[in-house]
Amino acid sequence: MGLRPASPLARHWPLLLALAAGLALRALLWGALPRIGLISDEAEYLASADWLALGRGFAWHTQYLWTRAPLYPLFLAGHVALFGRELAPIAVSQTALSLLNVALVYALALQTAEGRTAPGVAALLAALYLPLASYAQLLLSETLFLSLLLGAFLLAGRWAARPASAPGALWPLAAAGVLLGLATLTRGLTLLFLPLAAGWAWWQSGARGAPRRSLPAAALLLAAGLTVAPWSIYASRAYGGPVAIDTTGAFNLLLGARTAFDRGRSDAPTRNFVLAILDPQLDEDARRALLEPRRGTQSAVARPGSCLYEAGDARLLAALERPPAEISQAERQRLMSAEALCLLRAAPVAFAQKSLGELVDLFQINYTGDERLTRGFALGRVPPWYLLALFALDDTLYVLALPLAVIGWALLRQAGGRRGPQLERPAPGSERALAAGLLGLIGLWLLYNLAVAPLLFAINRFRVPLMPFVFVLAGAAVAALPRWGGLRTRYGLACAALAALLWLVAATPYAYLEPRAAGAPSRWASYLGPYPSSLDSTATGLAARPGFLAERRLSAALGAGDIAAARAALADPALPAWSAAVGAPLLDGLEGAPAVGLDRIAASQVRPLEQWQTALVVGELFRQLGDADAARRELGPELVDRQNPVAWAWEWLHPPPLPGDRLEIAEDNDLGYIRGFYLGGYDATIPRPDGGSGATLRWATGESVLRFPGAGTGGSRQLCLSIAAGWPPDLGPPAVALSLDGAPLGELRPGRGLRVECVALPARPAGADYTVELRAPTFVPDALDLLRQQGPQVGQLRLLGYQLDWAEIR
Fold it and tell me: How many angstroms from the chain centroid is the CA of residue 725?
């Protein structure tokens, strides 16, 4: 009797192991990432998705710096329409896709290597690689893009495995073209890869003995083109001219050209160029000022202006004579491209040098990249478990997989089509020859990205779409470890040398030999070496953690007005000196001696970490002295406004009772009494109850809090608010629900103009605090609102609920 064939589960147990490991890692990461607000492109994606979900189409991007490929905003918009702006459903979908990507990596490795070891290793690497797991909880397009891209490669490999004469032999390739088209609609950078993929299909057709080599290439291009074309037609109409996918390529090319021209990376000149032809609130003089050279001392040029503007380009000058609202995104794309070409002609050698440097940067580790969520690691903010996971599952896996991938490429390439010791050329049409064909497509993808990314700019995030293929090749190297002797050919030795070079570039052990002053950081940020290497940064973050926790205990005690706990926290030897410089004078104020706190600040040689923190502490002490004008002087400067430290003040300050229990919002003295409010400003158009218009207001988020210290009198009181809600006309005014200690107080329905609304408050003992919570739905403002954010608010999407002028307990 013959043996019963093994079940699919038994045959593919390495995949099950990888999926279990990947699921466990993603479960441990769920809701635990050390996020501080939105990062990178998240705000833009969420805003455009919200407008899509409201039926506004892609109108949000008409006022932004660029336009985006549509598929990922549509993916998010579907979730927003079904579940609101809750991020958990999006994370669930993306986690499922990230696990699917692990299976796709396994299937790809099955097509390129024999046995189960190589696919199992590749899938396990993909399952444990931290960015592939953590990106599932970020509003970034990489997870969806990889699912489409890996699926396309898998179908292309299936086509290569079918005989050319088999019925329906072209359908896998046509399906691969559809997925490549969808991937292009997720990230426009893939558009230029489509002809390369078609060229691969043409070449592979010859290897398969197909009678008509052009037919497969045409099928792939036609399928991809039909997938992309409807959007290209729509985008060209919506954005006022030819737009194939998006206009980010023009912006990124301009940014890369500007970086080379200035010999230093700064986004400001590129943003200024676009804002000059975008922002409707700028008059013609202000628009031209953005394009002129920046001058420093003695009128010397500190930074050159726009290349087209200095050259008197007729297209740009004509655009400046028109209102920005009349300039379409397609015209902005043409002007950005023209500006980039002007800069490239002015400094071609610098651009070549810049691109070479960007290529090196692409392989190196930037520890503080936004997507790594390491902001504040040197202050101890990042949890130790995440620091260790970042070091082991991101940087270490990358540094090991990169050279292994080159070795794996060499071994697979030799096994697929070259002679070498103990290796024979495979017969045409054999599995090994077909695997070599798929290997060629993988190689094209890797080379394409290595060629294009440095032309723009290189960040760690650009490596993520390459890593699944790196893991496929690395898995092959690990599985073929006993056959590494086959590298003793000129090709094999060349690949081994390249692997060693890439390891040196990525790991940078030579940074230890760099001559530098004592305590100075290294010029190279990578895996090994002095700070800011991954190894040293990890150690720095771990060492700083106790100080951060001590600071948290101090801020909690001060915010609660707990004098005994604050004294104990200040006595903690782990507390950083800059934290004590904040806490000690605030404790003086709590103990009834604010003048002592002011003297302490004046005499101290140690200052808080940030200058605005000093201003807040001094302002709080003046408030406790009863000097409201002096407090206003300290809390009002621009350095405080740029931070909008509402959350910080709520955590650290325990402010005194308000005069008359009246809180003037956005009047510089409201910090410490409010939470969940954006930076205030004057709105000249908002109607007032007296028939006039104009008021200084703050917008509130969906969850906000007002604090009235010592407002209890023993009797019933009422809270009155001067409130408005200037929502867009197509959205109804919100309902604002108020509660006290979780008990509902009532609901307000503010209109578009200011009016006074009151709710009853229960009696509180004399001297007791009232802390009132307010909840409201929110809307996403237009793109210009996001562009106008300054300081730490840059890149943070404002979700606007209601506007507040003042609040008073009567």
Answer: 30
